[in-house]
């Protein structure tokens, strides 16, 4: 990584290689948790031991563990080590590589503040046309669910309609920019739903309804909370098999 | 800007034309405020009157007024109309077109949640290398300011260093994606500083120091607040000539 | 309620009489909405007209309308007036006076930031004994619901357990200080439930479960969001007959 | 602590004795940091060692360390132990007992969400009379500072004026309820100022001005941020001698 501040700004923002090494380690530990080789409640090897096992430096191990904690998969107990907290559904790795799953969970951290802010502004500024568009998107979600399966396009259209209602096209542009990762996340999520229960799809629809209700009511704080709740639940449905009804 | 060509739902996220019409109207009212034809405390014409003057529909007028309110330039008083609240410095329009200024202020609404979230995560996850990078960026800002002028690259490098310290490269990627608008905002802001007072540049440096202090201390809430404060102040310095020391 | 007699600035914090006049007006408009004399979608009289009808000044009318907006009962549409947005269930006024209802809804605005902050800290600091206490409180809620009715004490005990898990006894003290209003709110809410559907009580229980899950997982942001969602839903169940299943 | 959920609610919310034991330990470690026996950058004894030294159980030690972390005085480095991060000014303990200082810092955690929410609502709802009252309070602060010393009453009156502008008297009531601790905090803070530099008092005044500006401008988000910034800085001025100019 070049930190030269005089450089052309393009360069400054390039993600370094260190992150990717942490990603690899993250993926391998994730795989062990998904496969059940590391069971819920079990203690992970010490940082030092992981360094030796994977031939990486301590900062790399800490970065990987920090991400697993942020994803709610493991938990650090001061002085006692790191323990497996939740185990994703087995079928998760049938549909996605660990590296992709890691990327989807990274994406959640960006979506949370971004879409929450868009939902708040949408409640403050939405015009009649915005409400029509949101209802149209939600109607498609309802119909598809009734017919048996919610498509990525319908889910994405709902989120795009909320972003657009913010009256600031940069929110739409941002969603568009991460659309690849976002679609992947939704596709995986919906695949899990198809092979899982309908209760799961019902939950998605109900969470959308809470967001829509707050925006229609002009309740800025409620809209932000409902969006945060929805995206947070989406993460949990992916990382905790017990939440994955 | 490269938009991933991936999915079919491309059209879903396309910003509509209505926004752009609102932008034009926004720009014209902004110009009248900057030029002083509309003075602080003065009442804007009624919505209906603006519709007639500009030959646009009511929703377009409302969208434009809503943005001016969000930017802190005008204020609605229930039942009494809309009044000019703050007036930007005259020299603002020497350096940028109203359309650009509108875009810079739109950008603030996206930066606020995004960079605030990155700063929070940075305080939670920063590693030694991150702190070194942030201090290096801030040291360049200090030196340039001492030598007479802070460059965009130095300011941008500080924000990039914070985003990188979040440990989630998507924050860096997002900043990179909006780098064009972001640099424009910073350039305008720094141009105002060069022609303005050094107190203004000192304020930028001190706000950076608050962010850095909170990240070093591992104070997540403090880091989020300091970043929100900094970006909010940057907006005020642009929109209020009295803040533009 | 015991107010520390300590300082001389006692008078500084005394609520003024103007608020109480606004309360009266608030109560009268609320009654008209609950009774159905003002129907959903209907426009309220103009500010000026309300001034004349109730013999009060404009600021008093604005304060009352501002509260009705904050409670999600009415909605201002710029330039078009104020409209009834949601109508509480008829039976609401069977169980409480408008003045009490107003007070309960005021209380929500204080509980939201306070209990959300406590839930966040609880996720960060909870010790084993805290988790046991939270689970015990939630178990009582589950059992009482199975047996037909959730009591105020059980609901309150859950919230007290979360506040206590924050590790900062001032949160407990604050809840204790507003316990009178809080119990009133919960009693009214549970009365509505008893005469309403069991779906409503199930929702309360599920919202508690989300809070508990996030605290157990050490998910600070999730805990704050789940608490905000829960308290926000409690307000909606009270103010919108269509939410009051 | 009695967890019986059937009990009279008064009992449920009583803070237990365990907290107070943690307080004592907190105070003793704080004293060692203030006195300089534990220096900045130095490592604290291990949890186990502290258990032995003070004859307390592990949860008590963890509670005390958790508070010291929350106050920004110490920092945990995963796998390496807990280190002193900041050292308060020597003269801090001339003016207050460690137990009081602990209580003041606890109070910050409650004030932050509470006063931030009040400031946000104030920006949304303030009426002319509120703005007059806030300016009057701030004018007194300015004058007193010019004359050499800011009194607790003036500082408190500013915060009371903001709470009152929220239009929800429960915020005022809450501030009134914690007025004893709040005044103590402000008194200590102002005592430090009197024996310290005027730059410190200037900072308080400027932070007030930011809050006032956002409320006058009707900038809800800005008002919340400015209040969070102010209270956060007040904490830092108390816990970090290098911030205590």
UniProtKB/TrEMBL annotation, chains A, B, C, D:
Keywords of the record: DNA-binding, Transcription, Transcription regulation
InterPro entries with a match to the protein in the record: GntR_C, TF_FadR/GntR_C, Tscrpt_reg_HTH_GntR, WH-like_DNA-bd_sf, WH_DNA-bd_sf
Pfam families, A to Z: FCD (PF07729), GntR (PF00392)
Any one GO molecular function term: DNA-binding transcription factor activity
HTH gntR-type domain span: 19-87
Keyword Transcription: yes
The organism's place on the tree of life at top rank: Bacteria
Gene3D superfamilies: GntR ligand-binding domain-like, Winged helix-like DNA-binding domain superfamily/Winged helix DNA-binding domain
Protein name per Swiss-Prot or TrEMBL: FadR family transcriptional regulator
